[in-house]
Amino acid sequence: MNAFSRFFAVGVAAAGLSSIVTAIAVAQDFPSKEVTIVAPYPPGAVTDGIARILQQGLTEKLGRPIIIENHPGAGGTVGVGHTVRSTADGYTTVMGVNAPFVMAPAMQANIPYNTVADLKGIGRIGETYLTLVVRKESEIDSIEDLVRIAKERPGELTFGSAGIGSAHHIAGELLSRGAGIELVHVPFQGGAPAIQNLVGDQLDMSFGTLPAVFNFVQSGELKIIAFAEPKRVASHPDVPLISDTVPGVETTTWLGFFAPSGTPDDVIAKLNEALTFAISKPEVQEQMIRLGIVPNPSTAAELDALVAADLKFWANAMDIAGIEKQ
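Above: the chain sequence. Below: its structure as tokens.
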């Protein structure tokens, strides 16, 4: 080995050692400042709500302020894309429903990240349920009514969603194809705007998570006609499933907490510990359940495994349904 080669090898080794030392220092000092949680949907959406419910417990455990930033758009992919472009040091994270992480890759032709390569799981937060709602005065009281009216008025009925590639969108497409009807998809930058437009009589129906529709159902402005779930929801045992009438219209909705890929494992462990601590608080669990979110925390590894399995599931589901990327 000549002198230049030895110098180059020593330089590479030194650079590698320096990176390791830096990563260790970052992990040991973490957190030394506020931690930002990106909510990839607008205020009022389930993601924004759960981040604010967990905010105090996370702050208490980490000993630093938790800042929540809303970056809505494109079914949540704008906020996730913003996060993956951030420094992988644990100070910028993203919290959201599963749609932009595992559904959007099967639905959107161009998203600004690769879920597996660009994100690292911190932990699952819980699960919630997807509803199909209409205004209280709507003539639609059931899926049977919806299918009948849609066949009488093809291409006229509209449904709102949280954006292309969201669980809302997928459920609507599966319903249209499964029932042989033509529903018009109207995407929004999050579930909350879709529900607000439904309340404002701009839509015929909308899919929405239980937390997003809860207050409107309680006030009598909206009614749930069915759940887009694989089994009956314990809190609403009398509400039927869409799949009771149109088989195969099923989605699952979970909430997860992620950091950019490359974030040190020790930092991930600290964030997971803080997340578990926040969820364990009885008052937090009560708030979550009241909003229709079932607390179900996990390890970082369990979330990564769930993401890998769901990416395959939704890609296969889209193939079966014949839904092409948009």
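The first helix runs from residue 3 to 29.
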